[in-house]
Design a protein that fits this description.
With 137 residues, the chain is α+β, with helices and mostly antiparallel strands. Helices cover 25% and strands 34% of the residues.
């Protein structure tokens, strides 16, 4: 956990995960998003990507993992998140979510982060920004 005063512009942290079929099915069950592009291999084979893809929001949720567990860490509160989905994430892909502090917002003592997710090939799959209220102590 890091407080506002401890975090410097340029500080960053990452989280890496390989997307499994069970991750996608569990996310679908929790959210109710049963889009065939995610859970039906036959339907997905006829779709845009020719195979099943992970939910964009599942992939984006790994940014929350970094914010909530590493930087700033436990006790952090999201104020805003903007995401642009740049490329699909397929079953078996290994993605890395990264947050990097880009701005310290006075007088509220909030933080602005660049948020990205890349795949195992270094391809950007999500790009965005987050505004976070860091823990006070």
């Amino acid at each position: 956990m890091a407080t506002y005063d401890e975090i410097q512009i340029g500080d960053s942290a990452t989280f890496t995960k390989t997307i499994s079929e069970s991750d996608v099915y569990l996310f679908a069950g929790i959210t109710g998003d049963l889009n065939p592009a995610h859970i039906d291999a036959v339907a997905a084979a006829n779709g845009m990507f020719k195979q099943r893809v992970a939910h964009g929001m599942l992939t984006g949720s790994f940014i929350s993992t970094v914010v909530g567990m590493q930087l700033p860490g436990p006790g952090s509160i999201y104020a805003a998140q903007e995401l642009s989905f740049r490329a699909p994430v397929f079953f078996g892909d290994t993605v890395t979510a990264k947050v990097e502090c880009t701005e310290k917002l006075e007088p509220r003592k909030w933080l602005k982060f660049r948020t990205t997710v890349t795949n195992q090939d270094g391809k950007l799959v999500i790009d965005g920004t987050a505004t976070v209220i860091p823990p006070s102590a």
